[in-house]
Amino acid sequence: MQQHQRVPWASGPAPTFWINHASRLIMRRFEERLRPLGFGMAYLPVAIALEEHGPLQQKDLLAYARIEQPTMTALLARMERDRLIARKSDPTDARARLVTLTPHAKSVLSNVKKAMATVVDEAMAGVSKANRDVLIGALQLVVRNLGEEVTDPDGARPQ
């Protein structure tokens, strides 16, 4: 019978451990801050796309928000339930429907952004601008190393 050799794994010095740990803590804090506003982090790409581009057909929203179709369908159903979006007929295409932010969503979105900025400030307390720039550059390199095109959060390629 062949014995398997135990391969040690020390997660502490692995940067990937700290990237994952920090990301999970930040996401948890975002959710804690957004929950009282009736908003979730999953809603953000859709809400921002609709805020920036106005009413969109679902197929266009998929591209802007970078969300897969099955996920988008479930997400829009939850957002509609939470009174954040409305769907209406597209006057230019009788078969299509437009997704739009509700007045309620528009009123809450500025508070969502403020809450998120507060979390970012808390997470980055004590990190200098120079170190933030190094961190962003290093994480963009990680993304490229894993085969993804680097885009800024608004979808543009960084310089």
What does this structure look like?
By secondary structure, this protein is mainly alpha-helical. Helices cover 56% and strands 11% of the residues. It has helices at residues 15-34, 44-53, 58-65, 69-81, 103-123, 129-145; strands at residues 56-57, 85-90, 93-101. The protein has a three-stranded antiparallel β-sheet. A hairpin with a 2-residue loop joins β2 and β3.
Please summarize what this structure is:
This protein is mainly α.
What's the helical proportion of residues? 55-70%
Detail the poorly predicted runs.
155-159
Task: Find the structural class using helix and strand composition.
Answer: mainly alpha
Order of helices and strands: HHEHHEEHH
Could you state the CATH homologous superfamily? Winged helix-like DNA-binding domain superfamily/Winged helix DNA-binding domain
CATH class: Mainly Alpha
How would the blueprint of this fold be written?
Blueprint: H1 15-34, H2 44-53, E1 56-57, H3 58-65, H4 69-81, E2 85-90, E3 93-101, H5 103-123, H6 129-145
Helix pairs in contact: 1-5, 2-3
